[in-house]
Amino acid sequence: MTSSRTASPRVFFYVQHLLGIGHLARASRIAGALAADGFEVTVVTGGTPVPGFPGPQVRHIALPPITASNAGFSGLADIDGNPVGDAFKANRRDLLLTAFRENRPDIVIIEAFPFGRRQVRFELLPLLDEIATMDDKPMVVTSLRDILQERSKPGRDEETVAVLKRYFDRVLVHGDPSFARLEDTFPLAAEIADKVVYTGLIAAPPPAEPTERFDIIVSAGGGAVGNALIRAGLEAAKSIDKPLSWPLSWPLSWPLSWALITGPNLPQSDFDAISADAPDHVSVYRFRPDFASLLKGARLSVSQAGYNTVCDILRAGCHPLLIPFTAGGETEQTVRAERLEKLGLAHVLTEDALSPASMTQAIESALEASGRPPQTLDLDGAHRTAEILRGLL
After folding, report:
1. Which of the residues 20, 279, 300, 345 could staple to 340 if both were Cys, CB 3.0 to 4.6 A apart?
2. Where is average pLDDT lowest: 222-236, 258-272, 307-321?
3. What's the pTM?
4. Pair type for strands 282-285 and 300-303
5. In CATH, what number does 216-368 get?
6. 3-class SS at 102?
7. Sheet (strand 319-322) strand order
8. Domain-by-domain residue ranges, the chain?
9. Would you say the CATH fold of 216-368 matches that of 7-201+379-392?
10. Cα separation of 183 and 266, whole Å?
11. For residues 273 and 72, which has the higher predicted lDDT (pLDDT)?
12. DSSP structure class, residue 222
């Protein structure tokens, strides 16, 4: 065993975000925890650049970016919106293989694949094939969120199992098994049970006290598909501008203070229109690096039900109103939101019912909620992932 594996193991961490920034944010949290634990981490990204990610503690290699050409993830486009061709794919593949050979890692982490990200198998399968031929192979693990997208095409789950058995040593499921287990959303989980390890949810450390306070925070993650949510939140902010007719269990000052955080990927024209239409008690931002601490000081968070946003909300102890993303047949956020609602940890408004009127009513109902049960889910998955990988080495 090489000295690097006993002192500072080298990690080669591949992550491809296609639409939102959730995959990149979760991977960055894990990479930061690994670096803090003494691993030498190289993160390879393949999506559009996002300021602040993957973070200062790691080495970053950026492949020529690709994105989803539509909300259903059925095609790939380059950063200018052009369809990705064979030459583009071959160049990315060669760059990835070169980076791997130069890095000589002890551990290769591939985010989502083969459970997802089949669109980039043109470069991941050559990487995995090369690893399989090596005499001194690095450990290969997949980094997986706790709730998966339901598969509609026959044979996909069987294909996933075959790839896992051929190439992967472990499946790191970043979730609390008391909340969601892999078999809940992956029917063939029993066939890979010997590879599965639960890490806990990948939440950031407890946030600092906020330097600015808002009663209600409406956020849209990356912002690529959050325009309707933000606009409905803006209309609700205009409507809820005086004390409500029923008594609250805690006092509020009126008008309520609102923060609308649109996300970096919202088109500039939409951002400008929302900003121009916002009344004085509503502040509009593209991005707030102190988002987690803002949640700590808020009465209510209104957002989609993405993994990272929910982890931030749970860590901050802020009550959420969740509007799960469902475009393109997506099911993962709906499953997460409904489970939190059953635990009394969230209110839920479905995306197909989203309107200014329904948003206003849902926010009023969520503000009325009191006596919520304490949050008991395991949120220390980033630190636990580092412990698991050291133990495996």
Report:
1. 345
2. 222-236
3. 0.89
4. unpaired
5. 3.40.50.2000
6. helix
7. 282-285, 258-261, 216-219, 300-303, 319-322, 347-348
8. 7-201+379-392, 216-368
9. yes
10. 35
11. 273
12. T
